[in-house]
Design a protein that fits this description.
Largest sheet: 2 strands, antiparallel
Strand order of the largest sheet: 1-4
Helix content: 10-25%
CATH class: Alpha Beta
Number of strands: 4
CATH topology: Alpha-Beta Plaits
Structural class: alpha+beta
Order of helices and strands: EHEEHE
Distance between the termini: 5 Å
Shape: globular
CATH architecture: 2-Layer Sandwich
Bound molecules: iron/sulfur cluster
Low-confidence stretches: none
């Protein structure tokens, strides 16, 4: 599984990388970016779901690889 950010929707609120820093980081404008290709292990599933539920723009989805 991996997390994906829709860059057309992300507005840079920053919740993803504050709440789930193992999976997300920010770019130089404060917009969210997935770490690496967004792939995560089962141990990070709750962090991924937390980010999905916390993004005010609903810009984050969890997808199959
Ligand atoms: S929480 Fe959502 S809107 Fe905010 S930076 Fe992350 S993906 Fe973008």
């Amino acid at each position: 599984m991996r997390v994906v950010i829709d860059d057309d929707v992300c507005s840079g609120h920053g919740r993803c990388y504050v709440l789930s820093p193992t999976l997300f980081t920010d770019d130089d404008r404060g917009y969210g970016q997935v770490t690496g290709d967004g792939t995560f292990a089962d141990d990070d599933r709750s962090a991924a779901e937390r980010a999905v539920g916390s993004c005010p723009e609903h810009a984050i989805t969890i997808v199959d690889r």
